[in-house]
Amino acid sequence: MTAEQIELVKALLPTSLGSEEIRTAIAADILRQSVFSARMENARYLAQVRTVCAQVAGGGMNLADARMVLKRTLRNMGHDTANARGITDPASRRRLDLIVKTRSAMASNAAAVNAQDEYSVYAEPAWELIRFGQRRVPRDWPQRWKAAGDSVGWEGASRDYGRMVALKASPIWQALGSGAGGYRDTLGNPYPPFAFSSGMSWLGVDRGECLKMGLVAQYEQPPVPEKVGMAPTEDEISEASQRAGMDLAGGLL
Predict the structure, then answer these.
(1) Which of 150, 173, 159 has the alpha carbon at shortest distance from 226?
(2) Low-confidence residues in the chain, pLDDT < 50
(3) 165: Cβ contacts below 8 Å, ≥ 6 apart
(4) How far apart are CA 132 and CA 109, in angstroms?
(5) How does the average pLDDT of the chain come out, rounded?
(6) Contact 188/110 with Cβ under 8 angstroms?
(7) Per-domain residue ranges for the chain?
(8) pTM greater than 0.70 (yes/no)
(9) What is the C-alpha separation between 212 and 224, in angstroms, rounded?
(10) Which residues make Cβ contacts (< 8 Å) with residue 95, sequence separation at least 6?
(11) Could you tell me whether strands 164-167 and 200-205 are parallel, antiparallel, or unpaired per DSSP bridges?
(12) CA distance 12 to 47
């Protein structure tokens, strides 16, 4: 399944909860499988977000055009897009860029996980977490890596904090996304982005490097990562929404 297809099949989950509340109130798997925008309840806007992010993930739209489409949608809904300021304003450039970049990256990396098979995993058994975008105040990802590794007993993961490398099927990836160590800015994904606006992503690590790091043995077939489910059932979404105190009695949107 391609990144664009993954984004398009996601269910819409409008919510009035903020980002931190979403993370704690709704199960991570449901959150990952749903299109959400913190404090935005309008289903029409969320549908546009889904469409736009799918096009960006598939290479059919750039960030500037995506921002323009979403701003126009918000303006038609009555939002003051001319004076939008700050990350909390749905029409601000920072907010729109964050939504599009995050959701597009999630779709692309989910597609990468689902594309793995025995052949690709044998050739490149691991991923390495590296910085792709600079930040004025970067978060301490080596410390997060250590906390995640400790939480899973370093199963399939390197203890060398100079390089954050782990087998593609290692539970450390889910631990990172779940905020192991008490981090509350994470997205619940077993793939990048593990947190909003982190600037971090991953690259494949070839078999020779993994042999040197002791992550695989000669001729060993590493496990293939589990597929990422992206289409929750109506019962799953209903249960999650009830836990969050939301009313989706009308069924799936």
Answers:
(1) 173
(2) 248-253
(3) 126, 127, 128, 129, 157, 158, 205, 209, 210, 213, 215
(4) 14
(5) 85
(6) no
(7) 3-113+230-243, 117-212
(8) yes
(9) 20
(10) 84, 86, 87, 88, 89
(11) unpaired
(12) 7
